[in-house]
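Appendix B, Record 12. Input sequence as logged:
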Amino acid sequence: MSSLALYRRYRPESFAEVIGQEHVTDPLQQALRNNRVNHAYLFSGPRGCGKTTSARILARCLNCEQGPTPTPCGECQSCQDLARNGPGSIDVIEIDAASHGGVDDARDLREKAFFGPASSRYKIYIIDEAHMVTPAGFNALLKVVEEPPEHLKFIFATTEPEKVIGTIRSRTHHYPFRLVPPGTLRNYLADVCGRENSPVEDGVLPLVVRAGAGSVRDSMSVMDQLLAGAGDDGVTYAMATSLLGYTDGSLLDSIVDAFAAGDGAAAFEVVDRVIEGGNDPRRFVADLLERLRDLVILAAVPDAGEKGLIDAPADVVERMQAQASVFGAAELSRAADLVNEGLTEMRGATSPRLQVELICARVLLPAAYDDERSLQARLDRLERGASAAAASAFAAPPAAAAPMGYVPGPDAHAPAQAPPMGLAGPDPSLIHIPEPTRP
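Logged structural output:
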């Protein structure tokens, strides 16, 4: 197996392989088809979302022997030089502006830019971390970016486009990249794991996607770490939660069940298990907030799992649906608000355990607060208690049936009961019927 990092081993070589950036790759491919390529581009967006990779693909498309083309042939010398594991091209120069962003570096670039390409169609400068170029450096580049020779192309890549001076930005075609959606990223990781012949348990990929936060490179790095430490049975859920520092689902289930039952002893026991297990209290609270968010959505949208609003395996979604059904909407909203407030208060806290226990106490004791939110949560609990009582009453065993053929009669020993007032008929002994008169 190759020793290259996973994100380098599977780096896209064409725009068709770039995931989650169709709003950028489609217009770029169309521009290449129409032969309307600009002399300068600005690629901006979060880290690890494909800016520099797309810049290399664009350079490959421009210098392909069959180009400019949206689909590089992959066979010519230029395509091979700029391939995933290629040696690179002398006519495609990558500059890290974090260490070469001064005015002297810009002047040196400007002087070399006017020399034609050695063997390719264009000389292309890819300036990474372009926001690190100093204002004096940008001003030194301004003239050559504004009126470059025919053989020259610039591609600026940055996470902070607002720091690129306006005079440079106005002369580029700006393409904003964005974070990759969780569903797209999860499917991509599943495909990579299949190519690596590494089994992965259900629930692992959502954790990796969450750790990567929408960045393909970060997600691939996390996945690479898990695959490197996997045994014969592949990447297990327990291994992923332990290595990534996330809270095990059983602890979250236990604390949510304790909140639903109003069981303080069970809630504080979970806190003790979290601390004694060496888990990060702040991470536990953040994961609890994530769980409450899922429950709030499930309470409002019962089929949220099918609609993709919740990123979790089917069995976990089913378990959360059962949890959401025993809460009232006000209870869940209040619990989520309190946990969110507690998470904010935990920044810089000297006793994280105390903060977690206080959060649990606030959630468990809505009667201790006089605000409308707590009042509504108490009403939810009362309604749930009344529903449970009614259900138990309906479930009570029926009275014993009378034997067949038995006709109940008046109990001789039971005292006679007067009929209800207004319903009693006249006593026959008191009715006087007059005799007929004889003539």
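Residues 399-433 have pLDDT under 50 and may be disordered.
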